[in-house]
Specification:
By secondary structure, this protein is an alpha+beta fold. It is 30% helix and 28% strand. Bound molecules: adenosine-5'-triphosphate. Adenosine-5'-triphosphate binds at residues 177, 179, 188-189, 192, 194, 261-264, 318-320, 322-323.
């Protein structure tokens, strides 16, 4: 099958209600997207899978949900105010602006001119007024990453949970970056969600943890349906590292527009906790205080062996939800030739990610007995906890199957005349991937589907 194109995905996402351009009726707000009825389900399922793997399945990670509005000092001491910038260049001919590091052969990507301005640094953080008076210092930032609140709440979490390193704090939430050139659908946007873990470890063990988290995250993406061969593990060259990082791996995925970053796994050392500690203690000294013996250092842990306080190092796997959604959609999108010469579009999403798990389809929507059974089956299946079960009473079975193939519903349950006329009552089950149909007794349906959804 040829590779999935961005046009195919954009069209499916709009047609079926996964993703819409924000403020579409006003011509759209650039770099901002809204998730529609199916998109919100897919996104929630991806986030739930991450949360489960990070928080529920482990015994060394706690969760957090911190505010988006961020105190200026946090982002001053984290280094973002000074260094969270991209190089910006202007084309003097067509007047468009670009990220200088995205320009190839010194030519404007829009008009090809080589008459470009010298790059200058452009800060990507959004500011907003706090309180009724505008101007001056009455502003907060919209956080550019979720991580900083994990660092600033480090002490509160430790005090509340009595954790010792190694342990982590996980968070999923919105981040904002005023990207110079948002593009490639939801790949590079100005408002997005991140799934971030800050994993605190003893200095000296950080590089081992970096390797282990890289493997862990790689395997997780494969469990979400990504083909291992389409993921590239890229070790960032020292000169290209972010201001806080000692070593970083990027997991890159073959998106429709090319091989690009899906997740970064960085060794952030004690850079952030060190800097915030420096502010806390109001010390005008080096950021690196891991040999600090002073127990009043706020963002530190006590080492029971050495009886000293130390600032832990942190390993951070940080993934974008939108990029994750784009990757699983790219992988799942399939066009399959049918024996009758037609082509069916099917979204072969992993079952746990599918927006709708089961479509219950009454063959005749004007038959009260069939409708009654359909409602009862839907209610019973919902109670099994398998996820969203949808009553699909559009009245045309062929169209219903096509729609549910396209949105990735793993199972359709059809209620026909035999279902209400013959005993024991039974229904037809259709499998999305194989299109195989089988007859299952209504009484066996909950157990049958529960075990179907438990299989990976
Ligand atoms: P890029 O180099 O592509 O700009 P980055 O290296 O700045 O990304 P990080 O700061 O490492 O990104 O952020 C962690 C993750 O957050 C990224 O791997 C990506 O999945 C997601 N992310 C970052 N910026 C954006 C964006 N503008 N739109 C969507 N997702 C983003």
């Amino acid at each position: 099958m040829p590779a999935t194109s961005m046009d195919q995905l954009v069209s499916l996402c709009k047609r079926r209600g996964f993703i819409f351009q924000s403020a579409d009726i006003y011509g759209g707000l650039q770099g901002v997207y809204d998730f529609g009825p199916l998109g919100v389900e897919l996104k929630n399922n991806l986030k739930a899978a991450w949360w489960r793997a990070m928080v529920y399945e482990r015994d060394d990670i706690e969760g957090l949900d911190a505010a988006i509005l961020t105190h200026r000092k946090v982002l001053q001491y984290s280094g973002h105010e000074a260094t969270f910038t991209d190089p910006l260049t202007d084309c003097k001919k067509c007047k468009n602006r670009f990220r200088a590091d995205h320009i190839k052969d010194g030519k404007c990507p829009e008009c090809g001119s080589t008459d470009l301005t010298e790059p200058r640094q452009f800060n990507l953080m959004f500011k907003t007024t706090v309180g009724p008076v505008e101007g001056g210092d009455n502003f907060a930032y919209l956080r550019p990453e979720t991580a900083q609140a994990i660092f600033t709440q480090f002490k509160n979490v430790i005090d509340a949970t009595a954790r010792k390193a190694p342990f982590g704090i996980a968070q999923i939430g919105k981040s904002f970056r005023n990207e110079i050139t948002p593009r490639n659908f939801i790949f590079r946007v100005r408002e997005f969600e991140q799934m971030e873990l800050e994993f605190f470890v003893k200095p000296g063990t950080d590089m081992e943890w970096l390797e282990s988290w890289k493997e862990n995250r790689l395997n997780w993406w494969v469990e979400q349906g990504l083909n291992r061969d389409k993921i590239n593990v890229h070790k960032i060259a020292p000169a290209d590292l972010a201001h806080y990082s000692k070593a970083t791996y990027d997991l890159e995925y073959e998106f429709p527009h090319g091989l690009e970053e899906l997740e970064g796994i960085a060794d952030r050392t004690d850079y952030d906790l060190g800097n915030h500690t420096r502010y806390q203690k109001d010390l005008n000294i080096s950021a690196h205080v891991h040999d600090n013996k002073d127990s009043s250092a706020k963002l530190a842990l006590f080492d029971d062996e050495t009886k000293k306080w130390y600032v832990p190092f942190v390993v951070e796997p940080s993934a974008g939800v939108e990029r994750g959604v784009l990757a699983v959609l790219t992988e799942a999108y399939t066009e399959e030739p049918l024996p009758n010469g037609e082509t069916r579009t099917v979204l072969k999403l992993k079952k746990h990610l599918a927006p709708v798990k089961v479509a219950v389809i009454p063959l005749k929507r004007n038959n009260p007995e069939i409708m009654k059974m359909a409602h009862e089956i839907k209610a019973t299946l919902l109670k099994t906890g398998i996820g969203r079960v949808m009553l699909e009473d559009s009245g045309n079975i062929g169209k219903a199957y096509r729609r549910h193939d396209e949105i990735g519903t793993p199972v359709c349950v059809t209620i026909d005349f035999d279902s209400i006329e013959k005993q024991p009552a039974s229904v037809t089950i259709r499998n999305r991937d194989t299109m195989a149909q089988e007859r299952v007794n209504v009484a066996d349906l909950p157990a049958y589907l529960k075990s179907f959804f438990l299989e990976k």
